[in-house]
Amino acid sequence: MIEPLLTMAIREEHDIFVVRQRGREVAAALGLEHQDQIRIATALSEVGRQMLAAGAGAQVAFHAVDGGGAATLRIDVRSLAPITRGELASENPLPVARLVDTLVVSRADAVTVVTMSRRLPPSAARLTPEHRDALRAELTGIAPGSPLDELATQNEQLVAALDEVRSQRDELARLNAELQETNRGVLALYGQLSEELEETNRGVVALYAELDEKSAQLRAASEAKSRFLANVSHELRAPVTAIIGLGRLLADSSSDPLTTEQVRQVDLIRGSAADLLGLVNDLLDLAKAESGRIEPNWDEVDLRLVFGQLRGTLRALATSPDVELVIEEPERPALIRSDEVLLSRVLRNLLHNGLKFTERGEVRMRARLEGGRWQLSVSDTGTGIPAELHDRIFEEFYQVPGSASARGTGTGLGLPYARRLVTLLGGSMTMTSEPGQGTTFIVDLPVRGER
Ligand code: ADP
């Protein structure tokens, strides 16, 4: 137990002034700042006054406690007789408790002890025994002043405290004004931002409405186009078929004989009508596919059968001795959920193109199963397609300049139609090609059909 820095007794009113003065001196000696000195002095004199009022008198002891790196000033005020009335008799915390860090009222052997503590500034963190001795000597050396002196000091402190309160109030008023100003600014900014946001929102909404209207118009236009194509081609089919039939009748050996020139002209008419019928049929197919009027007939399809049939029907087309048509046998089990008719139509189209645009080498079709998808490829060693036209050949009526005219036939509708069908079957169609080397089309389809 470390010896107290100073002890003193409160027996009469005069002692209250002394204890107050001593409290301030101890606090100052331990490095507490002015405000804290007044706090300690006030708390101490108030506790002392209450003990005196309760008729007990008190013993005051000041300690400098060095605990765990943080030094504190501890003041024990011990009553000289049991206390039974007033605030000190109750368990409620005293109002002066807010002037110090901790204030505890306890009772031991019919005596009331009030223990107060206040943390000391870091400069007093390490209190050596020599330091304490020096403090004790200093404090005992100070002569106690008279109550009048203490009253004067107290008055001075009160004036200073009042001054400080006033300046704090002024500062508060200034801060409030500033805050109000800032608030007004923030509100104005907020209002402006809200307005801008509202304006932008209105713009976006209008834009969306316009966009919706435009896409509805686009949809309507596309539907009208498909309807027009379907109607026109449908209407054209009958007369064109009639022309072909009439041509056949004219050329028939049982009809009146024609001159050689007439036979040539009738053949020309029939040829042109047949081309026209091809175009009309292609247009009708494409219009149907685009208008969504083709509903795939989903079924379990054996690719080996499809490939076999194509091998049979296309052999007649591969007439050139310099071009070989190779249709590889797909590995077992070559099953896919799809529409057999539509799938055959796509592959026939690609094989047909391959044969049409290949003069030497081969046209090869093969099937490969990869990660739950069938990759059906049709490759040829033909003319190839320049890179900048790779997208264009999928446009309606587009033909690579010179290519089709050199080979006579074609409408430029085959590839857009084929790609449309592949999409309907839940897959995609891609192409790689190099002029002079050849072309490969890949149809990628999910084994399980519909997505
Ligand atoms: P069409 O064959 O009736 O002309 P497509 O839509 O099938 O119409 O093809 C469009 C064009 O793409 C063809 O005219 C041709 O120029 C080009 N093309 C298609 N397939 C091939 C191919 N295998 N090799 C080279 N060019 C091709």
Task: Spell out the blueprint of helices and strands.
Layout: E1 6-10, H1 13-29, H2 34-53, E2 58-67, E3 70-79, E4 102-108, E5 111-119, H3 129-141, H4 147-251, H5 260-290, E6 299-302, H6 303-315, E7 323-327, E8 335-338, H7 340-356, E9 361-370, E10 373-380, H8 403-407, H9 414-424, E11 428-434, E12 438-446
CATH class of the largest domain: Alpha Beta
CATH architecture of the largest domain: 2-Layer Sandwich
Number of strands: 12
Low-confidence stretches: none
Q: How is the quaternary structure best described?
A: single chain
CATH topology value of the largest domain? Heat Shock Protein 90
Number of domains: 3
Global Rg: 54 Å
Task: Provide a compact summary of the structure.
The chain has helices at 13-29, 34-53, 129-141, 147-251, 260-290, 303-315, 340-356, 403-407, 414-424; strands at residues 6-10, 58-67, 70-79, 102-108, 111-119, 299-302, 323-327, 335-338, 361-370, 373-380, 428-434, 438-446.
Task: Write structural notes for this entry.
This protein is of the alpha+beta class. It has three domains: 140 residues, Histidine kinase-like ATPase, C-terminal domain (Heat Shock Protein 90); 127 residues, Helix Hairpins (Orthogonal Bundle), CATH 1.10.287; 148 residues, Heat Shock Protein 90. Helix content is 51%, strand content 20%. The chain is built from nine helices and twelve strands. Strand 11 and strand 12 form a beta hairpin. The two termini are 87 Å apart. The model has no long low-confidence stretch (mean pLDDT 88). It binds adenosine-5'-diphosphate (ADP).
